[in-house]
Amino acid sequence: MNTTTGKGKIMLVGLGPGSHDHLTARARAAIAEADTIIGYVTYIKLVADLLEGKEVIRKSMTEELDRAIESLARARQGKKVALISSGDAGVYGMAGPTFEVLFQAGWTPDSDIEVEIIPGASALNTCAALVGAPLTHDFCAISLSDLLTPWATIARRLDAVAYADFVVALYNPKSGRRTRQIVEAQRLFLRHRRPDTPVAIVKSAYRPKQRIEFTTLERMSECDIGMLTTVLIGNSNTFVRDGLMVTPRGYSNKYDVADGERATRSGEQAGRSLSTGLNGWLESLRISDETPAQLAAHYRLPLDYIIATLADLPHTEAEPVTEEGHA
């Protein structure tokens, strides 16, 4: 066991998917330097061979606040505590509840207890890596767990992102007690997406019982889904080819690629915004004969936004802006 220094420390450690091959060097070092390891019993098992000689505190699911309270108590004793989460501690992990507990206890960053957040690969990253490249355009994550979030709030978010054509990673899609949430999510998505929209279902990514299944939105709820599953729903351009799920970044909007050569499409310029980017779109509004209501329906945008934009149109076309770099 490490020797305590008198100044406590809480290290919020993201373990990634759970295999040692995907544990970061800093996460491994944090566990090595910790006096106490605190975590959900399943996460403790993932790193059990790294915990010899350490105080280990195992907690159950739904005891997240207890884990944070226990971490604070140990840190106040001058111990270094590794509070572990699977994936990333800041993505549906222990970082949020720990700061809530710390602030309620009067903690500030200048206090005697140091806090370090050690990132890990979240499920959406690891699952995406296993199925191809589904997240190479705009995406978001939504948890279907209604243990702490009202279902109406979750449903509004699902409906909004389905309408907005995001690729979506569904966390906590189903459990022994929560079986209908994935069906309701499917119902909301089918209001806006084609039934054949690609869906990837990844269970226990990078763990011994890993399982990957490709399906469609209309068949999604029939699949084997549980608490260790992440569901990736593609957008309107996502496709599956040769066992790989891919969401195009949008290069085909600007370039033709034939015989290994890239050619810029007519009306487009390399390194510049699309002709249908903001400046081009504003110009199309300026010369349009459509009413604001018709424009709102045409572009599926709020009417008050269209009205405000029309009222603020520049008199002359602005210089196109440089295209933003890759994410």
UniProtKB/TrEMBL annotation:
Keyword hit for rRNA processing: no
Keywords of the record: Cobalamin biosynthesis, Methyltransferase, S-adenosyl-L-methionine, Transferase
GO biological process: cobalamin biosynthetic process; methylation
Domain Tetrapyrrole methylase: 9-219
Sample GO molecular function, one term: methyltransferase activity
Listed SUPFAM superfamilies: Tetrapyrrole methylase (SSF53790)
Pfam families (alphabetical): TP_methylase
Pathway info: Cofactor biosynthesis; adenosylcobalamin biosynthesis
Keyword Transferase assigned: yes
Protein name as it appears in the record: Precorrin-3B C(17)-methyltransferase
